[in-house]
Amino acid sequence: MESHKEAQLKGVFECHLCGLTAPYSYYGQKPPNTRSVVLLEESYVMKDPFTPDKDKFLILGSQCSLCNRRVCVGTECSLFYCKRFCLPCINENLQAFPLEIRQDLDKKKSHSKSHPSKNADART
Amino acid sequence: MESRAKKRCRDPSPSRGHQGGLWDWSCPETRRRMEELYFREQDYIRAGSEDSCQFWTFFERLQRFQSLKAEREQAVLSPSAQADPSATPGLAGLPQEYDPRYRINLSVLSGDMEELVRGKRGDRRRGSGVPAERLSQFRAALLHYLDFTQKQSFAKLVKLQRERVALPITQYRDRLLRAVAQNQVVVVAGDTGCGKSTQVPQYLLAAGYSHVACTQPRRIACISLAKRVGFESLHQYGDEVGYQIRFESTRSPATKIVFLTEGLLLRQVQREPALPGYQVLIADEVHERHLHSDFLLGVLRRLLPARPDLKLVLMSATINIRLFAGYFGGAPVVQVPGRLFPITIIYQPIPQEEAAANRKPERLDPRPYLRVLQAIDHKYPPEERGDLLIFLSGVAEIGSVLEAAQTYATHTQRWVVLPLHSTLSIAEQDKVFDMPPPGVRKCIVSTNIAETSVTIDGVRFVLDSGKVKELSYDPQAKLQRLQEFWISRASAEQRKGRAGRTGPGVCYRLYAESDYDAFAPYPVPEIQRVALDALVLQMKSMGLGDPRTFPFLEPPPQASLETAVRYLREQGALDGAEGLTPIGNLLAQLPVDVVIGKILVLGSLFRLAGPVLTLAAALSVQSPFLRPMRPDPDCATARRPLESPHGDPLTLLNTFNEWVQVKSERAGGSRKWCRRRGMEEHRLYEAANLRRQFQELLRDHGLLETTAARPRDSYARQSRHRERRELHQLRRRHEETEGRKRKVLKLQEGEAGSTSDEEGAGGDRSRGIDIQDVKFKLRHNVDELQAAAGTALSSNQLTLLKLVLCRGLYPQLAVPDHYNSCRKDSDQIFHTKNKQGIVLHPTCVFAASPELLQVTEKGAAEGRRQDSQEGLSSRHQLLAFVSLLETNKPYLVNCLRVPALQALLLFSRALDTNADCTRLVADSWLELGVPDSEAALRLLASAIQLRAAWEGLLNQQLEGRCGESQRALDPREVATLRQGLLEFLEHEVQYTLHRLTALEKQNLYVGPQTVAAALGLPGLFQGAEMMPDEEKGGYRVTDFLTYNCLAGDADLYSDCLRSFWTCPHCALYMPFTPLERMSHENSCRPQTQEAPPEEVAGSPAKPSALQRPYRCDVCQQDFMFTSTEILRHRKKHP
Fold first, then answer.
1. How many structural domains comprise chain B?
2. Among A90, B78, B799, B839, which residue carries the largest CB count within 10 Å?
3. A29 to chain B: nearest residue by CA?
4. What is each CA distance from B400 to B355, B404, B431, in whole angstroms?
5. Do B424 and B505 sit in the same domain of this protein?
């Protein structure tokens, strides 16, 4: 209880792209109480609010390795391929990524055309 | 590391090892070995946890997916296009060849373990004996799993926020906050689904308000809202969101917002009238117009001027908003549209000829309901999901529609039919949330519980009977009546709305549109249809003055208030000036019915606190005994040993005690024990909680000695400590896996429904944890409970307990009908003072064994003279009952049998006699005929004495607790009273019991007399002053006894029948009538405890006719003495 309480007051994470906001309790690569897990990027992390197990964490987002903007881990905002890239940066450097990633993005694009993207909804 | 992962991914047959040996991932031994390596105590996933199960499921799916993918890729082996990372410096070093592994942003550090496994000594097979390929395969799967769980939780987060933003109230956030800032009272009006209950508290918190209380009409809503708000705010407020209900509280000093019941907030007002602990009060669901809600608004309206800093937000559906806004001086209204999908209304009134053709009008005709099921089957293809919710008025109606619908369901295989009402077990109620199999619809047949209290998702069709059964209160008969009414338009709309929560819906109404238009606009507020005793008592204790002039939102009927005041006076809670008596003051603080509260107070006097606490608790919750649609003979047999021949309250006592025994003997076995007896265990848990609360209340009020927990030896303390720690662990583990997963219903579910199957409540059974049992043991000191439950009552204790109960229940008495002995068992009828022809509730022990109430049974066997023709017996009995309920018939609920003569003598508010006391009338409705005048007088005299002593001790006890000097009662006096009462009850006197007819009642009294016609017998009632009664005639002896006021009785001969008699005390030899003899004897008997008459003379007593001046030569004093007093006085100077 206490550990999670003092972890409360870290700050609020906000995604630069979709505007998602959530309080985070840790920033870094080694969230507390999770000895065996390390993160491969410096991330904004909160306690997973969807499980009562207080050692479970949830990664909210991190900085794009190219433009350094804070982005959430949502697939419409960023992707991770050895490093974090925000979608606008990927689109600018599409050729640098393997085919699988490009195909993935294409798929998503056609998908998000038929469905309204979360961005529109989540932004107020 | 990465290359290994790659190799594993391409492995087409993961189940076969490269070394040629068989490698089986599904083998439990294999899994165990992997878990030992990766799911250690300090790892993110722990072996044996829910998480590890989910991992293995995921693992299997991943393997299937990968082997499929490998096949496909082998078929079309397209050369992967080379990426060109040279363009931007930040992109240098990205791997050329794609691998899904690179998409995962976390890693598992189990290097130490792996080194151990692989063995630095170079032998890769030693250590765990797991081949490295397998290890890396597992590792990669683990990473995928962790990535997957991250994505899952993140998606939930996004969804949650999206949903919050999409709520209609979001648009009104700023307007609302502005209104709250500028006004003391704001009304938020919004319909179902607008999000007001969850969002408004969060808005206020985010805007910087703290100490927010949000009241709810239902306990369950407090818990679920606190959870929901905590969840939605992502627990960023931590334990700043809490709830508080009767037995549970998550409130802490850090709590900024608390959800609590209306009743609880009222209790807080009672303690601290200005509610200093709150900054903002939100009263939710005020449109439901519950008694507490209405009253709370009244109290708050008075409070607001005194607390100008306090903010009040009323939240309501868009019903009658003007009433609320107006009540608070035109408070601004923020109106929020609801979010409902369009609902088509189909009016389908039952054709008149069909209604008329119904042969059994008491039984609901299910055909109109079946037609709707058929119509849905015809019109909508089964793959279009959507369930049906039927609203009926009561349990019997549910039964008949259920039966017919189930037959139809068996035939079509397209429906699962489920009942829903509050007397079902919790497990059965929960079934309505389960999912039907594909192509099958749920049909939930419900009372109006589903209108507001229970929300079931997925309902697309609503079928509304338009009827509701409501308890209405008859203040004249003081009777609860369950009657069927048409619903209001507001209820009809609420019911309709249940079809449009998740998509467009259809509402079938079994009435015409013209009927709808004729409905009342709103339901009758509770305050206008229930007993107001508790309300009036609470108002008195809050110092709100005369309830008749209190500015209610809408005032209750004057008659209800009058009845309540009169009742409280009768019960001794209010005095003649309608002020609180000491006992009333205490009762006001007990959150129970006045009657039950009285029993609690009374019981503590005779050291019966244990059983009385249990009884009071068990009587305050719903009966644990379920009444299934089809009675189960095994159940009845299993229940029999619990049944008490004395009555239902004692059956409840036995049941609770037995249950506690079972709980302490076999942990967790109580659930089965209850099921076998057809009992709802939950109610016993509630009773246990309530019992504890009563115990604390009595202790707080000094009515129960604080049993300083016996200092246990350190071993016992340690083991208790250890036990508690284990219990805490169990509970935590349960909470981690909480959240009952929805199950898929079986097609025949409804039919098996009534015999509640093994996996009833929660999914805990599989793991053998009974979480209720764990909570119970954490909350209660089971040893103490068991000790209280284990000691059997002695027969004296039982007798006293019955007496205490009866005194508490008085005047709720019923007399058996004169002709019951000639009636069939099931036709036994009873009468109360105001109501005739009442039957026993079918659950009553006397309904099954009416012989217990019969007068002419074993009495004769004891050799007693029985004259049944004249109705003479020493064994007449009355029933004291806890409540009177009228449904299709009036029923007595929770009955206790008591000896008639003694109960009436001890408890009657008015006792009228003839001249020789052979005829007594209790409370102007029951007549007792005692042919033996002397015996009658003796009993009457000791009744007077006992009543005075009892009353005196009780007042002493209640006053003692008020003063600081906790002056203990004289144990000798209590023992004397106890003994006296027991002896009194053992008296065997032959008497008749007769209920007065209306005509007899009219001519009952002689009426006011101009002269004192009958001679007063001063010593008859121990020197009590006898005043002529101006209404009834005769003499008032005590506040309840009026002597010689009964008409139609020739009291002539009482004077003539004198016979010579020698007083054993003073040796006076004279002719006496029996009365005179009693009178003399009473005044002559040397009484050590009685104050000598000299001192009594100090009180302003008017000289009675028989007193004359007397001067004692020995002590040189003047007195006013009667002749016997003179004799007595002389004896003092030997």
1. 5
2. A90
3. B106
4. 15, 6, 20
5. yes
pLDDT tens digits, residue range B565-604?
A: 988 988 788 988 999 988 888 888 877 778 888 888 888 8
- Strand intervals (E) in B467-615: 467-474, 479-486, 505-509
- Domain check: are B423 and B368 in the same one? yes
B110 DSSP 8-state letter: -
Both structure tokens of B611: 């059983």
Between CA A34 and CA B508 the distance in angstroms is: 55
**Is the domain of B871 the same as that of B918?**
yes
What domain range is B172 assigned to? Answer: 167-336
Q: How far apart are CA B218 and CA B223, in angstroms?
A: 9
Residues forming a β-bridge with A11: A24
How many other CB atoms are there within 10 angstroms of residue B341's CB atom? 14
Strands B813-816 and B877-886, sheet pairing: antiparallel
Q: For B158, name the nearest residue in chain A, comparing CA atoms only.
A: A20
Looking up tokens 């109106």, which residue turns up?
A: B335
CATH of the domain at B301: 3.40.50.300
Convert B786-824 to b/e letters by CB count within 10 Å (16 or more is b). bebbeeebeeebbbbbbbbbbbbbbbbbbbbbeebbeee
Q: B297 versus B609: which is more confidently predicted?
A: B297
Residues B789 and B657 grouped into a single domain: yes
Claim to verify: residue B183 and residue B101 sit in the same structural domain = no
Identify the weakest region by mean pLDDT among B413-427, B557-571, B774-788. Answer: B774-788
Candidates A3, A36, A75: best to mutate against B (most CBs of B within 10 A) is A36
Highest mean pLDDT among B423-427, B504-508, B622-626: B504-508
Q: How confident is the model at residue A45 (pLDDT cuts 50, 70, 90)?
A: very high
Are A98 and B239 in contact (CB < 8 Å)? Answer: no
Residue A13 C-alpha, separation from nearest chain B C-alpha, in angstroms: 12
Between chains, do B94 and A81 touch, taking CB under 8 Å as contact?
yes
Encoded tokens for A53? 């197990």
The pLDDT of A113-118, averaged and rounded, is: 48
Starting at the edge strand found earlier in the chain, the sheet holding B280-283 runs B241-244, B257-261, B212-216, B280-283, B311-316, B185-190, B333-336
The whole-angstrom distance between B44's CA and the closest CA on chain A is 6
**How many Å apart are CA B957 and CA B961, to the nearest integer?**
6
ipTM above 0.95, yes or no: no
Work out the minimum CA distance from B735 to partner chain A, whole angstroms.
Answer: 7
Same domain, B836 and B736: no
* Residue of B479, B284, B455 lying closest to B890 (CA atoms): B479
CB contact under 8 A, A20 and B161: yes
